[in-house]
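Dear support,

Our group has been running a series of protein-ligand predictions, and this particular one with guanosine-5'-monophosphate is the one our PI (initials K.S.) wants archived with full inputs and outputs. We had some confusion internally about which version of the output was final, so please treat the block below as the authoritative record. The input we submitted was:
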Amino acid sequence: MDERKLIVISGPSGCGKDTVLRRIRELDPSIAVNVSYTTRAPRPGETDGVNYHFVTRERFLDNIINGVMLEYNEYAGNYYGTSRETINRYLEDGTTVVLIIDVHGGSNVKKFYPGAMLLFLMPPSLKELRRRLVQRGGVDREAMEARLKIAEDEMLFASQYDRVVVNRDIDECAHECLEAIRAWELAEPESLNQNTDIPEEIGC
Ligand code: 5GP
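Confirmed final output from the archive:
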């Protein structure tokens, strides 16, 4: 099982993870995306089994107790988690799989799979992040403020990630992520050093 094929992408809510990932998959359709479990309600346009497995709190807690979850976290009042079996199946098949999870999930994955690559997606600025969150809608003002606060806290974790990419332009960002993924998969395991250069203009 080649752990270098396990790619974690984290970044604050609203930084464009899903859009960038969609573009990455257009560029390389062989890359799989893990579908997480969550207890949050679907947003308009989201589909069960595609964006998330939307489950009840009770079912999620059962999954934790039964050891189904590789990792999980509570985020803004809801649970989110990754199925261990699904990830192992992808890795056994030799498929590159991307997990879009929060920073706590990212560090938990790295504990179990030290060869995994942690890639952090940065918004160009907090102002731009706020604008994107407002534009996206789907959450009330209070929930949005909570997400912005979490976003600021999450950005402090960027230096613990293996790669940091700023999402100024979706296409450029997707190409940069794909190059990083390919380089990681080809690197000798002992040379997988952290690259924690944080772009200066971010100011976090
Ligand atoms: P959203 O509600 O915006 O879809 O996701 C909220 C946060 O939960 C995002 O930071 C997202 O990356 C994270 N998330 C989604 N799935 C998982 C998961 O399986 N595990 C963890 N730890 N975080 C997740």
